Amino acid sequence: MKFLGNIIWIIFGGLIISLEYAVGSIILMITIIGIPFGLQTLKLAMLALWPFGSKVTESSNSGGCLSVIMNVLWILCGGIWICITHLAFGVLFCITIIGIPFGMQHFKLAGLALTPFGKNIS
User: Fold this and answer.
1) 81: nearest Cα among 113, 56, 33
2) In the chain, what is the straight-line distance between the N-terminal and C-terminal CA atoms, in Å?
3) Does the reported pTM lie above 0.85?
4) Torsional class of 56: left (φ above 0), alpha (ψ -120 to 50), beta (otherwise)
């Protein structure tokens, strides 16, 4: 069932979302300062490509204070807007019974989009 959900997800926009995150990641990695943010955007691209069956977990070595500082910078520099967009799509999909599984995947992406530092995808 997860495989079928991922195929439907890819056909109806998951591939586009993943490509957008990948292009954004490449653009962020052009500068040395943008590399950590580009790596987090790659994490979002991986989850956006195959969300069904993937779990977002806290990292065992979360980075402590540095992770908190980087998450605050992420939120201030655009992470909040990414999160709001995924929340809006999640609510939109959850209006119908058929769309609830896809809405839940957008809620998962919203959580990762708000604070990506110190989290792993498994």
Assistant:
1) 113
2) 18
3) yes
4) beta
Joined tokens for residue 66: 């540095």
Residue 105 is which amino acid? Q
Q: Which two tokens stand for residue 33?
A: 């300062």
CA–CA dist 17, 57 (Å, integer)? 21
94 vs 114: CA distance, rounded Å:
20
Cα–Cα distances in angstroms (integers) from residue 37 to residues 87, 103, 122, in the given order: 21, 25, 20
pLDDT value, residue 1: 81
Distances (CA, A) of 115 to 5, 74, 98, 103: 25, 7, 28, 19
